[in-house]
């Protein structure tokens, strides 16, 4: 039996902060925590804006991206619930943040963070998780083929499969499929994977032709055999 | 007048932690800080080793890299003095660390970190700096041409030039050159920039032919006109 998963499992299941922890730590020390809801495709901040607020994603999916002056775009991170973002080493945000789904985010004044050791610890854990995901993404962008990139992208949408923590097929013999929601257009996927939109479409068509995936809707793909797609990620 | 710079200025001069601060914070709370010297090309840890120690680089240059099972390598970070590394979200290191020069590193048991708020703050600042450098590197790997990648790499070796903090040429008119030490072989540069060694060599030859650089030694390049190389990074 296939089931629909709507969460984006970045970093192969490594991320495990709880938003409740962030809220607890924040509320105990400071009352500037403000949960807010934003519709899909809301820009939460732009690259270069003054970095006054830190965000935690309570629900939904957010992408962080950077633009080159001539308009080329690179999506640098895809964040799911529990992620902290908007922290900056300098005075301004180093990238822009846009919601890929309707989102619920909590915001905190940057200064509050400095005064709470428990919040510091939570943020450090989140940053480490993001750092490891960025290392994996550098390998993808620098060394993987187009087919490996798209396969890796699809596998990141399947929780508990692929990588060290893989539990293997849990369904009865002969059935190892999963329906995943992309939350991203072909252009956004291309900008995340360092490819052109034509290459993304070509690879998806090729995977469909080989019987590896079915396209249920434009943004929903059924992975017919998870292990076979996993074997195409370059990690085997 | 050109001068020789031997430091690797990762992240456009954003990083500004002091190793003294790390030492102070560590020593005040725990006496497990152990400075040690290692020669060039020492592996400090391998991907998959148990992540028991956190490192701070006091002197020298370290690269972090990941390997795919078939041997393809991606250098994911180049770290210079002041950087903290070896922190892991999980039980094991997610990448390997190798010295590119003779290095001096301080090590700290991972548990000590949890108990020191000042060390936490210092580590958070370092992680944020690394996160921003990784965002920039994702743009390089995902969207930049070979010429733009090599130019960006060279400009990162020139402190205070390029990007928001650029002070412009400081020498008298007509002279804006700088000699930089690469600390890396052509293969290591290729593995950092997501290129083949042939492409790196071709681009360096092309830059030499155009009069943008002179090759003083295999690992030392003189940038003849910094602004001209800067204009080829894709950031203008």
Description:
The structure is a homodimer of 236-residue chains. With 236 residues, chain A is of the alpha+beta class. Chain A folds into two domains: 140 residues, Jelly Rolls, CATH 2.60.120.10; 88 residues, Arc Repressor Mutant, subunit A (Orthogonal Bundle), CATH 1.10.10. The first copy, chain A, is built from seven helices and twelve strands. In chain A, strands 1-10-12-11 form a four-stranded mixed beta sheet. In chain A, strands 2-9-4-7 form a four-stranded antiparallel beta sheet. The first copy, chain A, has a four-stranded antiparallel beta sheet with strand order 3-8-5-6.
Layout: helices, strands, pairs:
Two copies of one chain form a homodimer.
Chain A: E1 4-5, H1 19-29, E2 34-38, E3 43-45, E4 53-59, E5 62-67, E6 73-79, E7 84-85, E8 96-99, E9 103-109, H2 110-114, H3 117-143, H4 146-155, E10 178-181, H5 186-193, H6 197-209, E11 213-217, E12 220-223, H7 226-230
Parallel strand pairs in A: 1-10
Antiparallel strand pairs in A: 2-9, 3-8, 4-7, 4-9, 5-6, 5-8, 10-12, 11-12
What's a quick, concise take on this entry?
The structure is a homodimer of 236-residue chains. Chain A has 236 residues and is of the alpha+beta class.
Write out key terms for the chains shown:
homodimer, 236 residues, alpha+beta, Jelly Rolls, Arc Repressor Mutant, subunit A, 12 strands
- E-strand count of chain A: 12
CATH class of the largest domain in chain A: Mainly Beta
If helices are DSSP runs of H or I spanning 4 or more residues, what is the number of helices of chain A?
7
SSE-based structural type of chain A: alpha+beta
Summarize the largest interface: chains and residue counts. A-B, 48 and 48 residues
Count of spatially separate domains of chain A: 2
- What overall geometry of chain A do the principal axes of the alpha carbons give? globular
Helix content of chain A: 25-40%
What is the CATH architecture annotation of the largest domain in chain A? Sandwich
Q: What is the beta-strand fraction of chain A?
A: 15-25%
Give a quick account of the main beta sheet of chain A: strands, pairing sense, barrel closure.
Answer: 4 strands, mixed
Oligomer: homodimer
In spatial order, strands of the major sheet of chain A run 1-10-12-11
Uncertain spans of chain A: 1-22, 25-31
Instruction: Quote the average pLDDT of chain A.
Output: 86
């Amino acid at each position: 039996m296939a089931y629909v998963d709507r969460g984006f499992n970045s970093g192969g299941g490594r991320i495990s902060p709880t938003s409740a922890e962030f809220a607890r730590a924040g509320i105990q020390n400071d009352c500037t925590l403000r949960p807010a809801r934003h519709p899909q495709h809301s820009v939460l901040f732009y690259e270069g804006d003054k970095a006054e607020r830190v965000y935690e994603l309570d629900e939904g999916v957010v992408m962080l991206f950077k633009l080159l002056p001539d308009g080329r775009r690179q999506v640098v991170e895809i964040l799911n619930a529990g992620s902290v973002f908007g922290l900056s080493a300098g005075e301004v945000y180093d990238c822009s943040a846009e919601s890929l789904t309707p989102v619920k985010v909590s915001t905190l004044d940057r200064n509050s963070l400095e005064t709470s050791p428990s919040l510091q610890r939570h943020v450090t854990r989140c940053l480490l998780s993001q750092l490891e995901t960025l290392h994996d993404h550098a390998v993808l962008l620098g060394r993987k083929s187009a087919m490996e990139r798209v396969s890796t992208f699809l596998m990141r949408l399947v929780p508990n499969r692929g990588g060290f923590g893989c539990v293997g097929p849990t369904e009865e013999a002969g059935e190892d499929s999963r329906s995943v929601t992309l939350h991203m257009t072909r252009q956004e996927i291309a900008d995340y994977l360092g490819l052109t939109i034509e290459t993304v479409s070509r690879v998806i068509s090729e995977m469909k032709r080989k019987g590896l995936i079915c396209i249920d809707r434009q943004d929903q793909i059924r992975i017919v055999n998870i292990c076979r797609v996993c074997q195409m990620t370059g990690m085997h």
